[in-house]
Amino acid sequence: MSTVKEAVDVEVPVHTAYNQWTQFEEFPHFMEGVEEVRQLDERHNHWTTQVSGVKREFDTEIVDQLPDERITWRTTTGDTNQKGTVRFQRLDDTHTRVELVMDVDPTGVAEKTGDMLGVIDRRVKGDMQRFKEYIEKRGGESGAWRGRIRPGE
């Protein structure tokens, strides 16, 4: 399993960055290789991705969500095995640090080779930079979900 870490400072208030991140169906706008995310309910999402010609579908479960602080998830079904946390740190009234930490267990020859070559790290770094551009260009969030999900619920 590989651990990927990346942080980006965005020029929006913490609630704006957090609110936008809760809009999972918007992820294809800034995440490379993500074709679709369907939010099934407050805790579950279905993902369709295509990376290096390999199409994958999998489900994720949010296991911890605290508004303006963090969202933690894990995969529950499919060929992809990952878990991670995105944290939101208020820097000042108009700036936020968004930090993503993911544990990814590549499956298949293409994914394992890509991981060894640093493809996953570069993709996450690019996704975070594209999130920065996306939210700063919008100037505000496209929606929000401010509910609390506690581990073990």
TrEMBL record:
Entries under InterPro entries matching the protein: COQ10_START, ORF3, START-like_dom_sf
Transmembrane segments: none
The Coenzyme Q-binding protein COQ10 START domain, residue ranges: 10-131
Designated name of the protein: Coenzyme Q-binding protein COQ10 START domain-containing protein
Entries under CDD domains matching the protein: SRPBCC_8
Coiled-coil intervals, chain numbering: none
